[in-house]
Amino acid sequence: MSRRFVIEAVLVAIYGELMVPSQPVQYIIPYSTIMELYEMKGSKEPVMPDPEDDAHVKTKIGELIAFFDDPFNRKKLERSLAAPWRLSPPLPINDNVTFVIVNAMENAQYGEGFDPIETEVVLASIREQAPIITDQVELMEKIIQSEVPVQVYDVYDFDFAVEQGISADDWMTP
User: Fold this and answer.
1) Contacts of 47 by beta carbon, 8 Å cutoff, 6+ apart
2) What is the pLDDT of residues 73-108, one digit of tens each?
3) pTM over 0.85
4) Phi then psi for 141, rounded to 5 degrees?
5) Which of 31, 33, 97, 151 sits in a 20 to 30 Å window from 65, CA-based?
């Protein structure tokens, strides 16, 4: 059985180690974060501070966009867009990584404390009972301070999350 995590699409482009986990994982990706990839690729604003890293990440973003634009994958992805909170069929990446796209809907449930993308990530985590993987310390702090009932891991703790993290049986809802 694979571990499931909610993650923003750009993180799999930035952190290559997320694509080679030690065990099977399924990434639940809110559709709006895929749309952000197109904006990032076309933007003159750097994604990374170092120019070489930025060029590499933008190449990876382009590869991810090409993956999602592939007609077979596009058809699966579009199935998730038919209704709010619908999941796409699994999109296999390699032997250990599968993407599932969710048509998450931001509903301002967490007020002004979270931006729309953060809210979608949090709500997807709650709905799918899957931990969040993020590199945003501010998001982790907001989740803790707001006592949002989700499990969140820093991207640098990814190996721990995969090998030792909580299972679906351990998930606690309010």
Assistant:
1) 10, 14, 40, 54, 57, 58, 61
2) 999 999 889 899 999 999 999 999 999 999 998 776
3) yes
4) -65, -40
5) 151
User: pLDDT class for 128, splitting at 50, 70, 90?
Assistant: very high
Q: What is the SS3 assignment for 108-174?
A: CCCHHHCCHHHHHHHHHHHHHCCCEEECCHHHHHHHHHCCCCCCEEEHHHHHHHHHHCCCHHHCCCC
The pair of structure tokens assigned to 98 is 């599968």
Cα distance between residue 156 and residue 152, in whole Å:
12
171 falls in which pLDDT band (50, 70, 90)?
Answer: very low
Phi, psi of 41 (to 5 degrees): -65, -40
